[in-house]
């Protein structure tokens, strides 16, 4: 697969399947991977070589060094939050929905 849109769509489908099975941790991983794919595509189109393949590293890079709108910087922040010892997010957030909005913005810009 070398079509970022298809790769992102595939990750979101996997995220929804994981959520339906009650595996929110896996859903978060898929949402984060989708964001990583969109960030790599965005950087490629800007002529910037992605410094890492890690979605986590790319999320940190994009929230610090790109012209993301403030609400999407917050999304990138949410996607990099550490879970608690109970494997829960320390905030109330739908990371699939948030990652989708970040991916949409990145693909359009």
How is this structure best summarized?
The chain is mainly alpha-helical. It has helices at 4-20, 24-45, 55-65, 70-79, 95-108. It has one domain (4-108): Four Helix Bundle (Hemerythrin (Met), subunit A), CATH 1.20.120.330.
Q: Give the DSSP E fraction (strand runs of 2 or more residues).
A: under 5%
Please give the count of helices: 5
Structural class: mainly alpha
Q: Indicate the overall shape.
A: globular
* Arithmetic mean of pLDDT: 93
| CATH architecture assignment name | Up-down Bundle
According to CATH, what is the topology?
Four Helix Bundle (Hemerythrin (Met), subunit A)
CATH class: Mainly Alpha
Explain the overall architecture:
The protein has 109 residues and is mostly helical. It has helices at residues 4-20, 24-45, 55-65, 70-79, 95-108. It has one domain (4-108): Up-down Bundle (Four Helix Bundle (Hemerythrin (Met), subunit A)), CATH 1.20.120. The protein contains five helices and no strands. α1 packs antiparallel against α2 (24-45) and α4 (70-79) packs across α5. The protein starts with a helix and ends with a helix. 29% of the residues are buried.
Keywords:
single chain; 109 residues; mainly alpha; Four Helix Bundle (Hemerythrin (Met), subunit A); 5 helices; globular
Write the layout of secondary structure elements.
Blueprint (H helix, E strand, L loop, with lengths): L3 H17 L3 H22 L9 H11 L4 H10 L15 H14 L1
Helix pairs in contact: 1-2, 1-5, 2-3, 2-5, 3-4, 4-5
């Amino acid at each position: 697969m070398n079509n970022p849109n298809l790769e992102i769509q595939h990750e979101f489908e996997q995220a929804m399947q994981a959520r339906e099975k009650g595996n929110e941790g896996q859903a978060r991983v898929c949402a984060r991977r989708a964001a990583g794919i969109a960030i790599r595509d965005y950087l490629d189109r800007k002529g910037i070589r992605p410094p890492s393949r890690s979605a986590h590293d790319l999320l940190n890079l994009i929230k610090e060094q790109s012209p993301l709108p403030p609400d999407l910087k917050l999304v990138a922040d949410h996607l990099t939050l550490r879970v608690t010892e109970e494997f829960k997010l320390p905030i109330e957030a739908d990371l699939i929905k948030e990652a989708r909005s970040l991916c949409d913005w990145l693909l359009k810009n």
